[in-house]
């Protein structure tokens, strides 16, 4: 049967605990899991059929000297082997589909959730943690679903073999029934120790991955200030700590692996020794002795699956707990209407809840006192860059705030609608890998005229002309093959191409030369005519094109007016935007 294509909607995961999350993965594909359980059970029980056939071939054929009976039982053994091969192939194939479905589903819900929480993520979870969860943790979680196939079959096969042995000797059956739980009692403490060690190791691994990412991202800066060696030593020290923790995890793993192999072997030896003694005394026949050996040897397979499954369950629980914790990270204003989050109680919008403005409306930030007029180009010059970024986060609803939109609290508007109509474009926002057309957010069949307009406004047409395949040229992640100024203009073109109702630009021209900046300032005003635009910058070329300029001193707007007006009457503003040539404005 061909693999099932995951549904576009992976569903809402149960994040109330690691076991609930694992059970949700099972419930998402019930028929496939049922098929895997049936195939796993049939395969496990089929393994115990061959010792019975061999036992009949020995007693009814060899010992009785009946060639015809021997031939029939040998033929039955061959047919059983072929059937077991088929069942084994189908079992493995089905379980592979189950695991791959679980991986794809976990990856999809994580990607969906991360895209929804957006700017909240870096403040709550490190990049290294997200990386390890999206990589190895998803895989370990999927491995647990093996228990739904061979794991279920192992338990049933254990019971079937015990019943069959009871028909031969109740004492042998009692040894099996008691011996297997004893194996579990021996391994249990090791598994609990492994869970603790795995949790610590995975947490440290995520922290170290985050540190390595930070070092690589700031390597050029570190080299410039002479801090590369310092950070390298710190990273090496943390690596040593992680290695030591890995040794502890490996030690526990090695004991579990050794016990998984040794104890079933010792168990087999003990039962065979006991059966051989019974054969000597005549309590069992030679054929039954062979059968008992086959049954117990077969029993090693389900016992191994149970031990291995327990090992996978411990690792999977640790991984599922980390996934569930990440999925419970929610935006600060999750209480707003129009949003349902995995693991949260769905909220319904009351009839008296205010909606978004029907058309263009003013944005007002009570913290600074800034009012962004609808349909105008507003410039904001901030003394403190951190205050400027905080203002953009409030206006874009990336943090809890009292910002209003047309008199309506912004946090009361459905988040999907806010993201559709209000766009905050940072000057160093991430550029994903893909063709330049895809990076700009354009469809394959989109008219190039609209793309060209955005590129022209951002003065980025020369970037496209320099690429070998133009808009269809593949660009790597972060567009490292482009210069800093080229990347910034591509980011601006991407923001302009989306044509949001409200566009908030944070230092959109900080990496370009003055001539390019002048062209962008002139074209930006033309392209955004009639739309609401906020430019947070200290560039006199950009501020000179604004309808209204606000000077943000500290956390408050200290003066508003045109660029020329503020140059005349606000010395602090004049000093901020003069760029070392304050005398030119006197």
UniProtKB/TrEMBL annotation:
It is found in: Cell membrane. Keywords: Membrane, Transmembrane, Transmembrane helix. It is a multi-pass membrane protein. Residues 261-579 form the ABC transporter domain. The keyword Transcription does not apply. Its main location: membrane. The keyword DNA-binding does not apply. The chain crosses the membrane at residues 37-58, 70-89, 144-165, 171-191, 255-274, 286-307. Residues 36-315 form the ABC transmembrane type-1 domain. Signal peptide: none annotated. Residues 334-365 are annotated as: Disordered. This is ABC-type multidrug transport system fused ATPase/permease subunit.
């Amino acid at each position: 049967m061909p693999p099932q294509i995951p549904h576009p909607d992976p569903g809402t995961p149960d994040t109330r605990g690691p076991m609930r999350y694992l059970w949700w993965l099972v419930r998402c594909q019930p028929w496939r899991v049922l098929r895997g359980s049936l195939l796993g059970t049939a395969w496990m029980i089929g393994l115990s059929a061959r010792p019975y056939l061999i036992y009949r071939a020995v007693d009814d054929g060899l010992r009785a000297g009946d060639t015809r009976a021997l031939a029939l039982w040998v033929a039955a053994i061959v047919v059983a082997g072929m059937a077991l091969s088929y069942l084994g192939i189908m079992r493995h194939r089905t379980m592979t589909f189950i695991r791959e479905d679980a991986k794809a589903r976990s990856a999809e819900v994580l990607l969906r959730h991360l895209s929804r929480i957006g700017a909240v993520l870096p403040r709550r979870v490190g990049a290294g943690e997200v990386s390890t969860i999206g990589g190895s943790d998803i895989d370990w979680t999927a491995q647990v679903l093996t228990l739904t196939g061979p794991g279920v079959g192992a338990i049933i096969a254990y019971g079937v073999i015990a019943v069959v042995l009871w028909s031969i000797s109740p004492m042998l059956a009692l040894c099996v029934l008691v011996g297997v739980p004893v194996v579990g009692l021996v391994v249990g403490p090791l598994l609990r120790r492994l869970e603790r060690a795995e949790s610590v190791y995975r947490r440290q691994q995520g922290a170290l991955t985050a540190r390595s990412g930070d070092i690589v991202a700031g390597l050029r800066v570190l080299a410039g200030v002479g801090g590369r060696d310092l950070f390298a030593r710190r990273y090496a020290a943390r690596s040593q700590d992680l290695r030591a923790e890995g040794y502890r995890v490996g030690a526990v793993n090695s004991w579990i692996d050794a016990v998984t192999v040794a104890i079933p072997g010792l168990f087999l030896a003990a039962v065979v020794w006991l059966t051989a003694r019974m054969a000597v005394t005549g309590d069992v026949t030679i054929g039954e002795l062979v059968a008992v050996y086959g049954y117990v040897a077969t029993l090693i397979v389900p016992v191994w699956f149970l031990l291995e499954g327990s090992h996978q369950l411990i690792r999977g629980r640790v991984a599922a707990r980390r996934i569930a914790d990440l999925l419970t990270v929610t935006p600060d204003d999750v209480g707003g209407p129009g949003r349902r989050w995995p693991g949260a109680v769905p909220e319904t919008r009351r009839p008296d809840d205010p909606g978004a403005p029907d058309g263009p409306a003013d944005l007002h930030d009570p913290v600074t006192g800034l009012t962004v007029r609808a349909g105008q180009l507003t410039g904001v010059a901030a003394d403190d860059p951190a205050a400027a970024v905080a203002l953009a986060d409030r206006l874009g609803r990336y943090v809890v705030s009292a910002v209003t939109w047309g008199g309506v609290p912004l946090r009361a508007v459905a988040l999907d609608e806010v993201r559709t109509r209000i766009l905050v474009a940072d000057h160093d926002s991430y550029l994903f890998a893909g063709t330049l057309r895809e990076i700009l957010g354009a469809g394959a069949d989109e008219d190039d005229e609209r793309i060209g307009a955005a590129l022209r406004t951002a003065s980025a047409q020369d970037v496209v002309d320099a690429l070998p395949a133009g808009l269809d040229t593949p660009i790597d992640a972060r567009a490292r093959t482009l210069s800093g100024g080229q990347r910034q203009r591509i980011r601006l073109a991407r923001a302009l191409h989306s044509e949001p109702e409200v566009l908030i630009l944070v230092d959109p021209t900080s990496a370009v030369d003055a001539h390019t900046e002048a062209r962008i300032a002139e074209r930006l005003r033309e392209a955004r005519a009639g739309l609401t635009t906020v430019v947070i910058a200290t560039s006199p070329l950009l501020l000179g094109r604004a309808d209204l300029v606000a000077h943000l001193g500290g956390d408050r707007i200290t003066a508003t007016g045109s660029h020329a007006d503020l140059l005349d009457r606000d010395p602090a503003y004049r000093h901020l935007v003069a760029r070392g040539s304050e005398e030119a404005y006197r």
